[in-house]
Write a structure and sequence with these properties.
Layout lengths: L1 E5 L5 H11 L6 H11 L3 E6 L2 E11 L2 E9 L8 H15 L4 E7 L3 H9 L3 E6 L9 E7 L2
Parallel strand pairs: 4-5
Antiparallel strand pairs: 1-2, 2-3, 3-4, 5-7, 6-7
Length: 145
């Protein structure tokens, strides 16, 4: 059974494991803890039989929401977990009065771009040299009216 709950500091090593498995340039554990300290009310994990298999970190910026990071362990992808995480955060942000949510995604990450497009996100711009390796990011947005 899948459970979505708020992140706690005890989850750090498990979240970091998912982070390293998911990204070429993973966030450092200290940075993940900083994000928790700043945005803990919008930092969620997914547990499956007591094991953390995914997480999402977001924040509220005025009337907008920002998905800072989302990842699902490789063995648990394509099971709807990412969609559940996005839906959880979207509902909370909407209750807070947010009318748009944006995120950044590597231009080369076709799978993620397709995922976000299925969820209603569309291209809003390009951020050049966004990633450490110089790759550009697409800025995707979803509007709520």
């Amino acid at each position: 059974m899948l459970i979505i709950r708020k992140f706690t500091p005890a989850d750090l090593s498990s979240v970091y494991k998912v982070e390293v498995e998911s990204f070429e340039d993973p966030y450092h554990p200290v940075f993940l803890m900083s994000l928790y300290e700043l945005h803990g009310d919008l930092f969620f994990v997914v547990e499956w039989v007591g094991k953390i298999v995914g997480y999402i970190i977001s924040r509220e910026v005025g009337n907008s929401g920002h998905i800072i990071a989302i990842a699902v362990a490789k063995d648990f992808r394509k099971e709807g977990i990412g969609s559940m995480l996005m839906e959880t955060v979207e509902k909370i942000l909407l209750r807070k009065g947010v009318r748009e949510i944006w995120l950044e995604v590597r231009v080369s990450n076709k799978e993620a771009i397709e995922f976000y497009t299925r969820l209603g996100y569309s291209l809003a711009g390009v951020q050049e040299d966004y990633y450490v390796d110089g790759e550009d990011a697409l800025i995707l947005k979803k509007y709520f009216y």
